[in-house]
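If you are new to this repository, start here. Below is one unmodified record pulled from the training split, so you can see the exact layout before writing a loader.
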Amino acid sequence: MTDNVLEKNSESGEEPKGSRTMHALVADFPTPTPAGELATGTVINISKSSVLVNMKPFGTGIIYGREFINARDIIKHLSVGDEVKATVVDAENEDGYVELSLKEARQALVWSEAETAMKNKTPLEVAVKEANKGGLILEWQGIQAFLPASQLSQEHYPRVEGGDKNLIVGELNRLIGQNLTVQIIGVDQKEGKLIFSERTGEEETKEVLVSKYQVGDEVEGEVTGVVDFGIFIKVEEGLEGLAHISELDWGLVEDPNNLFSVGNKVRAKIIEVKDNKISLSVKALKENPWKEAGEKYKKDDKVNAVIIKYNKHGALASVEEGVAGLVHISEFESPEELRQTLELGKNYPFTINLFEPKEQRMTLSYKKTEEKK
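And here is the target side for that same chain:
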């Protein structure tokens, strides 16, 4: 009777009562974690050469050989009963174990160390691997990290006027291979992002240093950098100021290197204090030649001047050291005519068209002088 019922149910496609198909039984049995995937287990034994992990219901996992050696710094912190996450190397080796790697656990430990280092503001020494337009690429504990250019110290910040990105990269490339002392300011394990700063604590220190100075103060310092747009002067340890090329001398300065070298001692006057930065002027401590010129010259005077520079507005002519006037291009048919008529380094007669010594402004006319000849 029973056999007939089973036969009948089988023919009808219905599952016999009180029994299960092989398909259903297999579906209930979990599939072992394939190689390369992350698995979780509990430590059941730790020896001098291996760690056994209960991978229930898949059997026993083992960490040994090279994987054991590579993970010794992690294993020394493990105890029986600890839960670990590991990568499956082999779902079943020749001894019947599930071979495991603690690479993922190592990464988790490193990220945990990063969180702790950030919280404690721990200084770290890290080598610079690469540079790009945004900053520096570093590597710490096997993790690629980023140090934005804005987070570089005063010493290493790229001194490029106008923010030319190609010039910035050129400056940053000089740091490749160097070790920098940095602190972690950003950790995002999910995104795999680690952000460093070389300035942590520097801004607070700098703010205190800057607060001691005010506009009008005279300081003496050492030239620490000479660039095409000016010089950097160390006022005291941890504090530098910039003297722009326009503040180096009353006369025309084409190249700061012609006047200053790194290591020179120089006196300067503070002309601006802003955003924890100080701006300096070297020429402010020199006698202003425009003051004396104001007593010597007036509008419509005839003067002799030497052509010292061309610009888009015309030619700049020096009447005397530190006092120059503009010969406007409108007096000529073209820039070419101006340059042919007024040659660099040569002396010509001019008439003063405009003279405002307090604003240090003077315009000169070549045509008026020529017409009155």
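Two things worth knowing about this chain: Confidence is low (pLDDT under 50) at residues 1-13, 22-29. The longest strand covers residues 179-188.
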